[in-house]
Amino acid sequence: MNSEGAPRALEVQVRSADDVVIVTVHGEIDMASAPLLQAALDEVLRGTPPAVVVDMSNVGFLGSAGLSVLVAASEAAGSGGLRVVPSDAARRPIELTALDQLLRVFGTVEEALAVDDTPPPR
C-alpha cells in the first residue's frame, strides 16, 4: 500500500543479464494482479531461457494467487529453474506454505545470478 492507503498497482519489467532473464516485480500480487505476473512469466518461459530470476524485492504483498503463479512458473521452467528473490513481505508466505522447499529462494538478485547450473563436462 502507498502512503494514501491505496494498493500499489503491479508493475512487471523484463530484462536479460547474459542468458538469464530477470523479471522485476513492483507492487502487490493478489488475485486481481496475479494474471499480469502469470502472463509475463508465460511469455518469458516461451523463449526457454536457461534460467529466470524473479526479483520480488519490491513486492509489498504476496497472496495465494501469486504463490500459485510462482509454483506454475517453477514447474514450467524445468531444470534451469525459477530463482525467486523475495522481499520480507513476500518471503513470509513462501516460508509459511513451505514453498521455500520447492522454489529456489535467494537473498539478492546477485546471488541468484551467481548460481551456475551448467553440468560439468564429461
From TrEMBL:
UniProt xrefs under Gene3D superfamilies: STAS domain
Family membership: Belongs to the anti-sigma-factor antagonist family.
Protein name: Anti-sigma factor antagonist
Organism for this UniProt entry: Nocardia amamiensis
Chain ranges passing through the membrane: none
STAS domain ranges (all copies): 10-116
Pfam families: STAS
Organism superkingdom: Bacteria
